[in-house]
Amino acid sequence: MDAARSQTRPTPLPETDKAREPRILVAEDDQELRELIALALRNDGYDVVEARDGVELLGYLEAAAVAARGGNGHAQVAAVVSDVRMPSLTGLDVLAILRCAYWPVPVILITAFGDEDTHAEARELGVNAVFDKPFDLDDLRAAVREAAPRW
Questions:
Q1: Are 23 and 78 in contact (CB under 8 A)?
Q2: pTM for the full model?
């Protein structure tokens, strides 16, 4: 993380009236795909926060960690769904940061560049699932349900 970013406050998590629903963070730089995934997960009963890139995703994760310090750990984020290749921080970068911080939040990655090296690196970092684009949205939804069951 660069010096300028570490000096700023974390991106606040959006206010929600769905406090009892598990929160899923969806990071995808393709707006249409991000909105489609978010809509599907909202229809499944999740509270979804959308991020345009890895930096915005990390900001939301930092905000969740700060908000949880007085409570029950990192419970404000039930799972992360992230594209692998995004501007600034990639989904793999964010996954590595989470694991270095010992934050076991479930992470599901999606990628248009699903070579074996990418899959192997994701597995080494403890990813829950990797989906190559194009993927079946129902399969992604099932992976989220498995990783972050409704509370």
A1: yes
A2: 0.84
